[in-house]
Amino acid sequence: MSRRDWLRAMRRELSEVSGRGRLSWLVGMAWVAAVALIPFAVAAGVVVGVVGGTFGNHEVFLEVERSGSDSWIGALVLTVPTAIVGLVAAALVVSRRRAGLAAAYAFAALVAVCAVVSVTNSPPVRQFMDDWQRVTPDPRADDHAWERRFNSAIGASFAAAALLVVARRQRSARRYP
Amino acid sequence: MRRSRKHSEQTRLLLAELATEPSRDRYGYELAQATGLASGTLYPILMRLEDRGFLEARWELSDRRPRHVYRLTETGLAAAAASVAEPVIARPARAVAPSGKRATA
Q1: Considering CB atoms only, which of B28, B40, B47 is closest to A31?
Q2: Is B71 in the A-facing interface, judged by CB distances under 8 Å?
Q3: pLDDT at A173
Q4: Do B54 and A177 touch (CB under 8 A)?
Q5: How close A11 comes to chain B (CA, Å)?
Q6: What is the pLDDT of residues B18-77, one digit of tens each?
Q7: Tell me, what's the ipTM?
Q8: Contact at CB, B27 and A13, closer than 8 angstroms
Q9: B68 CB within 8 Å of a chain A CB
Q10: Is residue A176 predicted with pLDDT exceeding 60?
C-alpha cells in the first residue's frame, strides 16, 4: 500500500472527525505527508549534489585536460564511482528496496574516502588542483581550489549522512514496527 | 551482537487495542479514539505494522463511502501477545483518555 493510499485513508476518516479533533487530524495528515516526503527530499539532494557537482566542476576538468596533463583522470576515477553509487543508493532508498541500506553505506564509505583525500589535499586531488591552478586564468585560483575541495567534501558528507539515516530508519521500521 | 529493541509504548497500545477484537475490522478514527493516539502518531504505526506483515489493511467498499479498515494478521496477533509480555519501560505511565486529555496514572 502506497503512502498516497494511506493519506487517502486518513482523508476519508476526516469526515468522521468533528470539532477541535478535526484540526488535530489535519495536522496529523500534514505530518504523515511531510515524513513521507523526507526520503524523496534527501534523494533529490543527492541527485542535485551529483549533478550540480558535475556541472560545477566540469570546467576545471576541461581546463586541466586542455593543458595536456592527465591528472584529471585520477580525480575522475576517485569521484565518478562515488557519484554513480550515490545515484543508485538514492534510487534504492526512494523505492524502499532492501539493498538501499547497503548502497547507502557504500556511498557513505566512498564519500568519506573522497572527503579525506579532498580536505587533506592528497593524491590524486593534489596533482589535479595544482595543475588547475597553474593553467587557469582565475586570479583567485588558490582560494577557489580550497573552496572547491572543502565545499565538495562537506556537501557530499551531509548528503551521504542524510541518505544513511533515511535508509537506516526504513530498515529499522521494517524490523521493529 | 544485534541490539534488541522493543515495540514503542504507542505500538503496544495499538497492538493491544487491535487484539481485543481481532476478527473485527477497525477504522482509523475508531482506533484513534480507543487508544488516544493522535493521527500523526497512529498512522505511521499502522503503516509500519502493515509493512511488517502484522496488519491487514484494505478498503471497505460496502459502505456509502469507501473507508480503510484494519485487522491484525496471525503474525500481528502473535506480536500483540508477545508485546504484552514485554517489560514496561520504567517511567511514569501516562495514559491518554478517550477525550484526548492526558491523564497521569
Answers
A1: B40
A2: no
A3: 62
A4: yes
A5: 9
A6: 999 888 999 999 999 999 999 999 999 999 899 889 999 988 877 677 888 999 999 999
A7: 0.72
A8: yes
A9: yes
A10: no
The answer to whether B68 and A31 have CB atoms below 8 angstroms apart is: no
Q: What confidence score (pLDDT) does residue A15 get?
A: 84
A residues 14-33 lying closer than 8 A (beta carbon) to B: 15-17, 20-21, 24-25, 27-32
pTM of the model: 0.66
How far is B103 from chain A, CA to nearest CA, in Å?
Answer: 18
HEC string of chain A equals CCHHHHHHHHHHHHCCCCCHHHHHHHHHHHHHHHHHHHHHHHHHHHHHHHHHHHHHHHHHHHHHHHCCCCHHHHHHHHHHHHHHHHHHHHHHHHCCCCHHHHHHHHHHHHHHHHHHHHHCCCCCHHHHHHHHHHHCCCCCHHHHHHHHHHHHHHHHHHHHHHHHHHHHHHHHHHHCC
What residue has cell string 494511506? A6
